[in-house]
Fold:
Amino acid sequence: MPGLGSTGGKFQLSAGWRYASADRSYFNSRYNRSFTELWGPKIRLSTLDVTALYKVNNRVRLTGTLPVVFNNFSTILPPLGIDQGARRGFGINGVGDLSLYGQSFVLNPSDIPSKTSPWVWVSNCPQAVGKLEGSSPTNRVSIPAQDPPILRRRCR
Structure:
């Protein structure tokens, strides 16, 4: 696929991995030592999210996410005492629900000022207060980069 994973292409593919594990049991917010030592619970939660994005044009994007789950739980059965009994467990593996959604911009993104455009965002710099006629620090807006340098100075 041309443009796969690049910012300028029509397609983008990404993957994310989440992992969590636990081997202690809690009752309310307290560690339950007797239950943990007797039953020896162990759980592992792993999820792989695969996401594909298709850019229809500058204003419309379609995105789909598919989670793939690899979970495992085990405990000591029967609980005859500490380290007595056999560890038994089961896995919960599979594909989750496919999520599809679209995103549409109300305005054309190329018309909106950004960090790479010739427009500069003026923050609430004390040095620039009062330099723009009729403006206050709370309603300051973007200004063209060719305006006087005092308006584009960064706060320190």
Summary: The longest helix spans residues 33-39. The mean pLDDT is 75.
